[in-house]
From TrEMBL:
The gene is nei. Keywords: DNA damage, DNA repair, DNA-binding, Endonuclease, Glycosidase, Hydrolase, Lyase, Metal-binding, Multifunctional enzyme, Nuclease, Zinc, Zinc-finger. Residues 10-169 form the Formamidopyrimidine-DNA glycosylase catalytic domain. This is DNA-(apurinic or apyrimidinic site) lyase. Belongs to the FPG family. GO terms for biological process: base-excision repair. It catalyses: 2'-deoxyribonucleotide-(2'-deoxyribose 5'-phosphate)-2'-deoxyribonucleotide-DNA = a 3'-end 2'-deoxyribonucleotide-(2,3-dehydro-2,3-deoxyribose 5'-phosphate)-DNA + a 5'-end 5'-phospho-2'-deoxyribonucleoside-DNA + H(+). Residues 232-270 form the FPG-type domain. Its EC number is 4.2.99.18. PROSITE patterns: FPG_CAT (PS51068), ZF_FPG_1 (PS01242), ZF_FPG_2 (PS51066). GO terms for molecular function: class I DNA-(apurinic or apyrimidinic site) endonuclease activity; damaged DNA binding; oxidized pyrimidine nucleobase lesion DNA N-glycosylase activity; zinc ion binding.
């Protein structure tokens, strides 16, 4: 059985796919191995308990375990869960990066570089995800409420609004940049200055893109099948815009490797922008 590796830069689509794969590997099966490698969880033993299911909520993962327990994890920038067959060598990283191991008789889920890992009562899940806004991939998606939250603070820059999980749960920096490009405005434009109808189209586009990408190993926002064109602006600094040919610019406080760097096309996108890097 091939190992399943969750891709980098986790956003809502990646987390949904991770939850789907973990659920398929663990749900309904007894844990034969449990190893949570954090001091606060070092004495926890979940062996003998069945995994009830794995549920995504925005960028959070909720692994529900028999007995009313939930293992809560968040991938942030480079965390990942890998699933391995019993006879398969683990290749997700060196051993010191492993934070959690949940094993069954057939498969083992290994969590690498997890910056957030907590064990709580299932009834207490709202304490870690109750603050989130409408989940773009959730069963309780509410379009009108999402638009309302996006427009709640008209002076706030669009990029900040999109990254705030209290407005829309599931958007990360990649989608922030791509959505601003598709709306033809820069990430620094106040949301109150968006043209009429754009906020609604932007929210609808966000949900559509995450839905389209949740089953893919490579995220795409550019339509068509060209393998050399998957994203419009993210990660494409100095390369020509696919629409107008203008070189893509970036701003990240002088560091293009930062997790909150913004990419945009000065030819296609209107609105305020920082100085040239």
């Amino acid at each position: 059985m091939p190992r399943r590796i969750m891709d980098a830069m986790p956003e809502g689509d990646t987390v949904w796919r991770t939850a789907h794969q973990l659920h398929g590997a663990l749900a309904g099966r007894l844990l034969t191995r449990s190893d949570l490698r954090l001091p606060k969880l070092a004495t926890v033993d979940l062996t003998g308990r069945a995994v009830v299911g794995v549920v995504p909520r925005g960028k959070h993962l909720l692994t529900r375990i028999e007995g009313g327990l939930t293992l809560h994890s968040h991938l942030r920038m480079d965390g990942a869960w890998h699933v391995y067959a019993a006879d398969e060598r683990w290749r997700g990283g060196p051993g010191h990066q492993i934070r959690a191991i949940l094993g069954t008789a057939a498969l083992t889920a290994v969590g690498y570089r997890l910056p957030v890992l907590d064990l709580l009562r299932t009834v207490d899940e709202p304490t870690v995800v109750g603050h989130l806004g409408p989940d773009l991939l959730g069963p309780d998606w509410d379009f009108e409420e999402a638009v309302r939250r996006v427009l709640a603070d008209p002076a706030r820059p669009l990029g900040e609004v999109l990254l705030d999980q209290r407005n829309l749960a599931g958007i990360g920096n990649v989608y922030k940049c791509e959505l601003a490009f598709l709306a033809r405005v820069t990430p620094w434009l106040p949301v109150g200055d968006l043209p009429a109808g754009v906020p609604e189209r932007l929210v609808a586009t966000a949900r559509r893109l995450l839905e389209e990408n949740k089953g893919r190993s490579t995220r795409r926002t550019v339509p068509g099948g060209r393998t050399d064109r998957s994203l419009y602006v993210y990660g494409r600094s100095r390369q020509p815009c696919y629409r107008c040919g203008t070189p893509i610019r970036w701003d990240g406080g002088g560091d293009e490797l930062r997790d909150r760097v913004s990419y945009w096309c000065p030819g296609c996108q209107t609105g305020p922008a920082p100085g040239a890097p």
